[in-house]
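Re: the 389-residue chain
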Amino acid sequence: MIDFELPEAVGLVCENISRFVDERLLPLEQEVGFEDEEIPHERRIELRTELRDLGLLDLQRQEEDGGGGFGQRDMVAVAEEQGRAVIGADMWGAWRFPALLNRLPEESRKHYEELHEHDQLSGCLCLTEASSGSDPASMQTYFTRDGDSYVINGHKMFITGGQNADYATVYAREKGTTGREGINAFLVETSNPGFNVLRVIPTMGHPNSVATGAAEIVFEDMVVPAYARLSDEGGGWGMAQGTVGGVRFRMGARAVALAKRSLDMAVQYSKGRITFGEPLSERQGLQFMMADSYIAIQATRLLTQHGAWKLDKGMDARQEISVVKIQATEMLANVVDRAIQIHGGVGVTEDLPLERIFRNARIDRIVDGPNEIHRWVIARNLLRDRVVI
């Protein structure tokens, strides 16, 4: 059974992150422009230095390497505190780098320790292509071997934060292979010759943000040293599936955080807005909307915690990963939609964060695997008797 009480160290970190969000990030939201909605680079480094001094970075990295040694369920609790700020994903955008370092052999890790520089780097995941995303068999980006190095050629699309990234996790298949076979994952510095950002793709949401901006990237004879290979030879797709599990649970926690914020705004507004002689909070129709939102938030939180707990226990959590991806993204969309409706006209203005949350929530139903793919995965597992109902 899940122990719902967090370890003392994790609880303390969550309290400190919550304080940082309240005091530093929520006020900053009003200063960040609505067109690009990105924290200025210098300010971002300043804030990340504060986080470093508070011991609130590298939480997932191994303790012997100076990290917090947090597990998946610990990181879900952390992500729920981080996610309350719309710009929180920008602030903690480099979280993947420490986790990637854990995957490298010690001799390879030393090189990237110097690259890390703790507070300044951000990363991206180069997986999706114009003709492939969730289907590894369609991956076209390929590598060939050149002595102890790999040479990568190909084309990636809709790469979140790719235009601003300092490093990238690049997935490519060995030329001539098919299906899931022969795929490797590489940790690549974006300054590497052959790594070319073709364009920033204008999208719904925040087109130029580290957190949500999408880039089109072309690899032209990009030479990658052998020590940059993250996966076992040919085991890249399996690594991708193992990596995105934790990511999707943290996506679930972030959805819970933003939904909580949206619901709280709706509750407080309904108490103070007087129409026809009484507060909106007295209208039973609105009460039902708030009750439905609360139920959905609590269900999503428990599903997310359960899935992360299974990962920590080394159990198969693939079904939970897909369940949380669907539940969290659709729950957030519904909760913020109700919150906007309760606020009326002011809910769709840029005076409040609700319209920003709403736009981003729509994107989340597509990224990290469209919800339709996850429904197919869930049904396939049921039909093949892979899960117990």
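The first helix runs from residue 8 to 29.
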